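Bug: token stream looks shifted between consecutive jobs. Job 1:
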Amino acid sequence: MKRKTILSTVALTMAAVSLTACSSSGGKTESSTAAGGDTAAATTMTVAMITHQAPGDTFWDIIRKGAEAASKKDGVKLDYSNDPDATKQAQLVQAAIDKKVDGIAVTSPNTGALGDVIKKAVAAGIPVTMFNAGGPDAMGLGAIGYFGQGEKDAGIGAGQKAVKEGAKNIICVIQEQGQQQLEDRCAGVAEGGAGAKVERVYVNGRDDAAVTTTIQAKLTEDKTVDFVLTLGAQFALDAVKSVAAAGSSAKIGTFDTNKDLVAAVKDGKVAWAIDQQPYLQGYMAVDALWLYKTNGNTLGGGKAVPTGPSFIDSSNIAAVSGFAANGTR
């Protein structure tokens, strides 16, 4: 009976996620509260979601769709804010503490800058969930749960896949210096891609034109580069332009997805993407706080809850395309 009960609970949870995915509205790019609607539950609590989203990075639209779907289901007022500067992101967490919100969902790309203020929230009696970045430190900071992928492990998988497909000279493109999860990804690529040359290339991720130019220059300078691995969907699309402009035959792989990236995989312009299921990260970061506040529940048994990684390529792109059209993959 216990096994059946657990399986039934999982099935019901996944059904709820699926239903909210189909009905969620489009993500926004500025601070806002989650949209209501006739089917929204009565407001029960306020959750501040604070991320390191950079301007124009569409990956976070998927995160927000998941968060807004959970908020609508649970009757949560969602206050979203973001800043790619870790010091300024920490100030946003402090502002949420000062507002005495009921819960905080936060990413931590730089625990040195954010760790103390996260601990301060916990000490103030505000439950905290963490997601997307900061997994190795989350439980030690007092978070009740973490939802994301093991970044180095994902990088190892990416390096192995690239080498298996014939890569001998890989550039790993990092769009934001100082973010530990991005460095961990490239460290994993170097480990998994043993036998191939792996070089880190830093770009200005807040300027797509500059990203394209920098990658193009590298490909023009070193004609032996045969694989470009980016760490975000929009940068893979920049790399497509770079490869064409440089007259290179390098393949492209990436971490993360968005609607246009899924189309690029379908068209063969990008070989594959690593999906960490950002919709699920946003959804669970909010839903876990609601479960904790309303019923004292926690997930993961004191350990991070993995949402990835998994590969999206020609073998499964057809199944993913429909969800991408909804803006949820």
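Job 2, same session, no restart:
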Amino acid sequence: MNLIANANFDRSRPPRRIPLRDTEITLAHGSGGKAMRDLIHDLFVSTFDNPALSPLEDQARFNLADLMQLGDRLALTTDSYVIDPLFFPGGDIGSLAVNGTVNDLAVSGATPLYLTCSVILEEGLAVETLRQVAQSMQQAAIAAGVQIVTGDTKVVQRGAADKLFINTAGIGVIRREVSTSAAQLQPGDVVLVNGTLGDHGATIMLARDELALSTPIQSDCQPLNGLIAAILNVCPAVRAMRDATRGGLATVLNEFATSSQVGIRIQEVALPIRDEVNGVCELLGLDPLYLANEGKLVVVVPRSQAETVLAAMQSHPAGAQSRIIGEVITAPAGAVFLKTTFGTDRVIDLLVGDQLPRIC
């Protein structure tokens, strides 16, 4: 286990929790010695405890025969999380790191199983902050049905990072009958989303206290693997799935259209966007279609399966507000349009620049 790869202690002994008395992260916590061991055991080993983690090796090991019972292909992904602020309504950097990686696996049709957790800590970070993040990660992992099985810890000098960065990698197994790809869309296919758009991006803007606004918006940070399993149970022939994170719905649809060389038209009247999110966007001159989400799924299915998939999505807690929002068209290839309430077509292009930095 890389979390403790440089620590000089006997790994043959069962781990025991050594209460950490430090209140702030120091450079010693990344030195490989006693301070590092105490930090890792007290915050990570005791929190993430599971059979794959407990040997405390430099890697987690799995039985291939067990994995093959779940499918015939592996899915591997990784992502890094640098959000500011660390805690926000509806989540924090810990739950975001777990759910984001789980969702990246799930949209491939994989059953997420195992995650890594690597942290970069700034000297001076409050130990209690790190403890809260670790506990949040474990709670999110339990909710998603995955295990955090290995990782790494680094400490950098004060000012060399902003409090806490997290990298997670994930591995899952893809069901044999499932094969999704952004290159599989066909004219006539239907586009669905599982709920309101832009909640996460709007929440982060407000959480930074740069605006004197108070609204009930909170991040949609949640795992999507349960919802996706419900979809695949009724429609294994899903064309494509993607979680609409950075760049929002608009970016996902453009990626789909470009990969499949088709057009996509969505209906403005069908888009689920909260009044509060629309209000924030109007105030700041932003477009909610480009705002980040952390629990929103964009799925494209054959028209013949659309109503069946919609019913399955709406029956799951993560998809209760699911809607059909548009369709795949033949031409122009690679273009995305919004049919406005005035009956005109508005081009939805790729975002130039960044509406809001460090939202995940």
